[in-house]
Amino acid sequence: MIVSGKPWLDTEGHSIQAHGGGIWAEKGRYYWYGENKGGPTLAEPRCGFRVDVIGVSCYVSTDLAIWRHAGVVLKARSDEPDHDLYPKNILERPKVIQCPATGRYVMWMHIDSYQRDKAAVGVAVADKPEGPFEYLRSFRPHGCDSRDMTVFRDDDGSGWLIYSSERNDTLHVGRLTDDYTDVAGDFTRVMAGRRREAPAVFRHEGRLYLITSGCSGWFPNPSETAVADRMTGPWTVLGDPFAGDAEGTSFRSQSTFVLPRAGGEADEYMYMGDRWEPKDLGSSTYVWLPMTVSGTRLRIEWRNSWNPEMKGL
Q: In 10 A of CB 256, how many CB atoms?
């Protein structure tokens, strides 16, 4: 069973550290990657609080409820002050997809300086989903600032990068190169001027859906969804998918990923969000809830607990 908003332990009894993460699924296994925030929470002048970079954790499960820690698969570089992964820098929102052309697993993430003025993406690769991942480099995609981001592998094998840009004012969408380690061509501006971050994208019955949060730091806000026929748009804004969310806080969560439900019906998905605890980021919990699509509308309802493998809701 999944119980949202409560402490979640791995098979060794340790708190799961996979924040701002996403899942790659293959061969009956789920690989959950996320930020390890197991260190002390420190005050930061720009965003209030931070944890020094530890790295990206990977957890493995067959049922989405019980998770084995596979280790920190991309580690901080504590002895290299000029490296992107030096602890005083920023590593956020890691996502992994497998590249059909190379067979390699490619991790993208938000990389920033301590002053948060780098605003770049980082790329790492591995031969196995459990890593270890080799860090390649960081850069500004399309020459633009990039903060919250995600990557998506579409049904045709194309890879896509979606990132908050223009100082979080607008989302950019761009296609990846065939090996998934760079951007190819130009980008499309999406939800321009709406100040959205924390993007999560999925495909349903030939259409693409995007869930985003507003920009309010570590504090939750109403989510917003959009739909398009192509990644390059145009995207039509649909509104807030959270039903009965009287506080307007996305059930006190921020979006990070959407996963199709292996045991569910064709219109059932799993929303993944983070419930941040700003003054103790390592104790932040997770909000995972069933989500349905009806027509073009998304609906997420609160559940105290639920079984992600059950059919029907």
A: 29
Could you tell me whether strands 120-126 and 134-139 are parallel, antiparallel, or unpaired per DSSP bridges? antiparallel
Contacts of 136 (CB under 8 A, 6+ apart): 122, 123, 124, 125, 181
Question: 48 and 216 in contact (C-beta within 8 Å)?
Answer: no
- Alpha carbon 195 to chain centroid, angstroms: 17
Tokens matching residue 188: 């499309």
Would you list the DSSP string of 62-129?
A: SSSSS-EEEEEEEE--TT-TTSTTSTTSEEEEEEEEE-TTT--EEEEEEEE-TTS---EEEEEEESST
Residue 165 and residue 197 in contact, taking contact as beta carbons nearer than 8 Å: no
pLDDT in tens, 43-95: 887 778 999 999 999 999 999 999 999 999 999 999 999 999 999 999 999 99
Query: For the chain, what's the residue count?
Result: 313
Q: Does residue 142 come out as left (phi exceeding 0), alpha (psi in the -120 to 50 range) or beta?
A: left
